[in-house]
Amino acid sequence: MAQRSAIETVTFTTLYPNVIQPSHGVFVENRLRHLLATGRVASRVVAPVPWFPFSSAIFGRYARYAAVPAEELRARIHVDHPRYAVVPKLAMSLTPRSLFLAALPVLERLRRMRDFDLIDAHYLYPDGVAAVWLGRALGKPVVMTARGSDVNLIPRFSRPRRMIQSAAGHAAAIIAVSNALKEGLVALGVPKERITVLRNGVDLSLFHPGGRTASAPARSSSAPILLSVGQLIERKGHDIIIGALPLLPHCSLQIAGEGPERKRLECLAAHLNVSDRVRFLGNVPHQELPKVYAGADALVLASSREGWPNVLLEAMACGTPVVASNVWGNPEVVTRPEAGVLIKERTPEGVAAAVNRLFLEPPDRAATRRYAERFSWDATSDGQLHLFEQVSRS
Asked: What pLDDT, in 10s, does the model give residues 242-265?
C-alpha cells in the first residue's frame, strides 16, 4: 500500500465554530488551522450540533441550531454537522450514545471516500467518550484532548467519571492543555506516561498591540479600563470583578460576552452604584477582540476553573497585562511580572488588591507582548505531529 504524504485525521468535537456561533470553540479551530499549515496533516471536521426541527421560541436559545447547515467550509476546512438528540434532564448520561449514533454514519462515509488514520477528539465528555466508541466501531485509534471542565468539574458525577476513565483506558493517547489538567487526569487514575501536555497557543498575527492606537479615540478619560472577557456565567466570576469596583473608584470595567447572568450582573452593578462605570459589550467577534484587548489597561479573569485560558494569552499578545485567579492552568500562563499578577484571594477585595498591585508597577506593554511571543502555536503543532505519527504507526 502506497504511503500517504500526510496523516489523515478526523477532528471530532462539539466545540467548533459554525455559521451561527462563529466564536464557539474557536480555540479548537485555531489549533487545527496551525497544525494543517504544516502540510503534514489533513483533516475533515465532524462537529455535531443538537437536533431541533425548526427555529421556534419554544426552544429558546437552542432554536439557533436549526439554522446550522449540514456541511460548511470554514478556513478551507470541510466541516460536517450531524444532528444529535438532546434529552432534557437526562442529557449528561445519554449524550455520549446520542453523539455516537449521530456521527457513525458520517465517519463511515468519510472512510469510504478517503480513509483516515485516526480520530482527534476534543473534550473528554461527552465528545471523547463517543469518539472512543466510534474508534472501536471503525477500527481507528483515538487521541483525546482534555480542555478544562471535562477534568475539573464533570468527573464529580459518578457515571460520567466512570465513562471518562473507561475512554481514557481505550484511547491511543491523551493530550492535556495544562500541567494542572494532567495532574487532574492522574488523580482520576490515568497513567501519567500516557498523557502529553500541549498547551494552547496564540495567533500572534491577529492579536498584536497595533489595535491600541485605533481604539484610543473611544476612551472618554484617562481612567484605567479593566476588561473581562467570557460567557456571562457564574464560574467566570464577572460578579466578583463588578464587586471590586467600589474599591477601585479610579477604574471602569468593560465586559465582553453574553449569557444567562447578564441581568443579574446589571442589577449588581446598579446595587453597588457602579453602573456608570460598567459597559456590557455583548458578544464581540473573534476578529474584533484585538481592538478590545488593546484598548484596555488590564484584563481581569476571576474564573473559578480554567484549563488553559486563551483570553490571557490573547490580551498579553496585544500588550495588555492580566490579573488572573490562582486556579488550575492560570498560574502556568502568568509566571512573570511582565505577564501580570495572580489574585491571592478570589473575592472582590482580592481582585481589587491584585489590580492595585499591578498598577503600582505596571509592566511595559512591549515587554508583555514579548512574553506572549513565547506561546506561538509552533511548539504545539510539533508536539501533535510527533504524537500523531506515533499513533498512526502503531
From this structure: 999 999 999 999 999 999 999 999
